[in-house]
Write a structure and sequence with these properties.
single chain, 432 residues, alpha+beta, OB fold (Dihydrolipoamide Acetyltransferase, E2P), BirA Bifunctional Protein, domain 2, elongated, binds 4-amino-1,4-dioxobutan-2-aminium adenosine-5'-monophosphate, binds magnesium ion
Amino acid sequence: MNMTFLPISKLIHLPSDSEVEARGWIYRARSSGAIVFLVLRDSSGIIQVTVKKGNLPDLEFEAARDAAVESSVVVQGRLFEDKRAPGGKELRASAFKVLGSAQPFPITEYQSEELLLDQRHLWIRSREQTAVMKVKAAVMAGARDWLRENEFIEVTPPMLTQNACEGGTTLFKLNYFDREVFLSQSSQMYLEALIFSLERVYSLAPSFRAEKSRTSRHLTEFWHLELEAAWIDYRKSMEVQEQLVTAMVQRALRDTREELVHLRKDIGPLEAIAPPFKRITYSQAIEKLQALGHGITWGCDLGAPEERAITADEAVPVFVTNFPKECKPFYMKEDQEDPRTYACADLLAPAGFGEIIGGSEREVDLSKMLARLEEQGLCLEAYEWYLDLRRYGSVPHSGFGLGIERVVKFLCDLEHIRDAIPFPRTVSRAYP
Ligand code: 4AD
Ligand code: MG
């Protein structure tokens, strides 16, 4: 026999009558007397398999009949047209072998969300999860390629730090020999140090936030794409952001169109994403919200309901610029034209998905920075190195951080951010 081993998505396109070998896991199984109907899945797709008594040795037929869902198997046979089968082909087995037999699978059709989370190590085999992970890989590949083409250098910041980049309330503390350190909330400060030699840098690393709030868009561990560049202001940074986000969306559409079609009602809105994104100031946003009947006043931070209202009717992402100082962290630069605000912008995904990027120009004035650190009661000693960046050849610079799972949640139209990461960490869950 002249066997061709190929991924299912490839072999299903071979002409009928081809002799093939497929490897995968049993996705569905049903038998009636002398015939067993299986659906086999691998990382690339699914195919229907029929195993008929008499077409292969009896022992192999029995193995197929008795194999439980999720057993790993190798099937040899011939392809036939079958209009009703997924992909339009059926594989008729002439040889069948179980490599790893499965016990009764603990996940069946209608399971509670909690059970699916307890069984996450098994649930990630599902077609939905597989599709989401492929979209996520495409998004990250699209980002890395765009960044390389635009001469940003990837760097590797530490995850253990003594600095609270995003405020003291969401820090995870650890014993580090004889002292206390934190898990990194953001690599920003280290990226700022690296621009003095490399000028344009980025990192893709986990960030950790001890978020006590249970929301559909907060994880305690998320993947953070952060970028920092010398010589640019926050307006130029917004241009970088809109191009980068567009490149990420384009890559997902190019490489994982089928997955997106499977996950979303409509991919049309993703095709429409292109620069320039809309820009409104925080003050304009407040006026709009007040006109819509929200009880928000100038100076309050935007929460999920406000972000949803701002972008509900938007097809492309929206930048909200110039937040009041009281809403944002110590490192941002005061806006020259409106000193009540920072030269900063959050990027909100369309259709109510909320913030996907936070960014700003950075304060470079040593005395202003010192005053703010003191105001916030931060331990100055731990920030000495960061202050040195203002002492030795300080340079105008801007940067931002993008939450990969937030982008994936939006692209895949997910209800909850935990489905944008294979092993979600939230306030109530660190297992499996
Ligand atoms: O707005 P954030 O807190 O900004 C920073 O950390 C800056 N230091 C980044 C920088 O300028 N280098 O976080 C940036 C992005 C958010 O817009 C959001 O997409 C994501 O990180 N993010 C989270 N994603 C999931 N779960 C959480 N708990 C998140 N917190 C922030
Ligand atoms: Mg933010």
